[in-house]
């Protein structure tokens, strides 16, 4: 017996977007276009009769903006929402507010060349909708507070494309500098906010890959920096990894850890998509395994797919402690599940306990 299709509603004031996004979704196996409407007020009327499984939502619209609509949905009947927003600085800030209100994923659209973009991004859009449909709605309701977009590639490359594996494993020398490496995807913006806001000023240095498009990571880091005791910034090439600081990989670039004597720095590099993502968690985790070893803690959190599972195993084999977010607290239990399956996870803990795992790094000497 065939599974029920994913019923999707598109809410966008652009007739072109409604037509093209609707057609792309309707053509995808297992997805049904329920409605395509011009604004949230029309959506509310339609939803009185047919409630969608996933909503693809624009942010800036007349009569009612997308953020207000999103908050209404999350208060009335939490539903996975994919934000479809313009890729501009203003759009990034607005979209971050939408993510804070409970959206689970982001698709960026340009102001020009929209038809070509949507044609080229059909796989990305469909993957985002499928990821949203897998979201734990109970977690969305509990944590409507800070997605990620699976970025599709014709071929799935591994971390070898950026940083070849060592022929022989080696254990880096112990230092007093501790490193925490975090990887996450769908649902990760909300989860990261919950973890980072719980940390005091005195914490190990943190490096983070959150699957997110270009131009959005800077706004995301700025948002977190305002609400956290620690310093949160979008990583730049050669930034020092310091206690009390979290460096977030910029969208569209890979983040690697580098060691110089007893100090750690990051490299921000271009390169192909790895596990269909750039930045890739596997790339970061491999670099941490190679350059920090037992000085590190690896954490894999909510997300669709398997990015980070191989890298976390490399970290564990190099002597690092490794932790996964547990299934119940994940929005999507994909990446942690795969990491557990491959043997890379030392233990799984609820989201609310991850800050304690990070602080435990300070006690290891």
Automatic annotation (TrEMBL):
Catalytic activity, as annotated: L-glutaminyl-[protein] + H2O = L-glutamyl-[protein] + NH4(+); [protein]-L-glutamate 5-O-methyl ester + H2O = L-glutamyl-[protein] + methanol + H(+)
InterPro entries assigned: CheB-like (IPR008248), CheB_C (IPR035909), CheY-like_superfamily (IPR011006), Sig_transdc_resp-reg_Me-estase (IPR000673), Sig_transdc_resp-reg_receiver (IPR001789)
SMART domains (alphabetical): REC (SM00448)
Reported modifications of this chain: Phosphorylated by CheA. Phosphorylation of the N-terminal regulatory domain activates the methylesterase activity.
Enzyme class: hydrolase
Protein's cellular compartments: Cytoplasm
GO cellular component, one term: cytoplasm
Sites of 4-aspartylphosphate modification: 58
EC number(s) reported in the record: 3.1.1.61, 3.5.1.44
This protein's UniProt keywords: Chemotaxis, Cytoplasm, Hydrolase, Phosphoprotein
Domain Response regulatory per the UniProt entry, residue ranges: 7-124
GO biological process: chemotaxis
Main location: cytoplasm
Role noted for this protein: Involved in chemotaxis. Part of a chemotaxis signal transduction system that modulates chemotaxis in response to various stimuli. Catalyzes the demethylation of specific methylglutamate residues introduced into the chemoreceptors (methyl-accepting chemotaxis proteins or MCP) by CheR. Also mediates the irreversible deamidation of specific glutamine residues to glutamic acid.
Entry text on domains: Contains a C-terminal catalytic domain, and an N-terminal region which modulates catalytic activity.
Protein name, per record: Protein-glutamate methylesterase/protein-glutamine glutaminase
Native source species: Pseudoduganella plicata
């Amino acid at each position: 017996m065939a599974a029920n299709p994913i019923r999707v509603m598109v809410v966008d004031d652009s007739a072109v977007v409604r037509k093209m996004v609707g057609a792309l979704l309707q053509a995808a196996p297992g997805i049904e276009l329920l409605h395509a409407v011009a604004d949230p007020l029309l959506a509310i009327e339609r939803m009185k009769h047919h409630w969608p499984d996933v909503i693809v939502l624009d942010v800036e619209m007349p009569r009612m903006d997308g953020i207000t609509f999103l908050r209404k949905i999350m208060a009335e009947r939490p539903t996975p929402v994919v934000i479809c927003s313009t890729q501009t600085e203003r759009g990034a800030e607005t979209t971050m507010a939408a993510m804070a209100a409970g959206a689970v994923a982001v698709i960026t659209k340009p102001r020009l060349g929209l038809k070509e973009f949507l044609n080229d991004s059909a796989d990305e859009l469909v993957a985002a909708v499928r990821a949203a449909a897998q979201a734990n709605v109970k977690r969305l309701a509990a944590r409507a507070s800070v997605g990620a977009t699976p970025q599709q590639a014709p071929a799935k490359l591994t971390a070898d494309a950026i940083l070849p594996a060592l022929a022989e494993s080696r254990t880096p020398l112990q230092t007093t500098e501790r490193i925490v490496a975090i990887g996450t995807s769908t649902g990760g913006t909300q989860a990261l906010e919950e973890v980072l806001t719980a940390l005091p000023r005195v914490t190990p240095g943190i490096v983070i890959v959150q699957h997110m498009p270009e131009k959005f990571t800077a706004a995301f880091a700025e948002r977190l920096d305002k609400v956290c005791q620690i310093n949160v910034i979008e990583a730049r090439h050669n930034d020092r990894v310091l206690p009390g600081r979290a460096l977030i990989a910029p969208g569209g670039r890979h983040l690697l850890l580098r060691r110089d004597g007893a100090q750690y720095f990051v490299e921000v590099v271009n390169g192909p998509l790895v596990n269909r993502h750039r930045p890739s968690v596997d790339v970061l985790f491999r670099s941490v395994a190679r350059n920090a070893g037992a000085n590190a803690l690896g954490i894999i959190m909510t997300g669709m797919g398997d990015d980070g599972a191989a890298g976390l195993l490399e970290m564990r084999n190099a002597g690092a402690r490794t932790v996964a977010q547990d299934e119940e607290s994940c929005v999507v239990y994909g990446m942690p599940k795969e990491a557990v399956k491959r043997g890379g996870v030392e233990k799984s803990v609820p989201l609310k306990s991850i800050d304690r795992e990070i602080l435990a790094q300070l006690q290891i000497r």
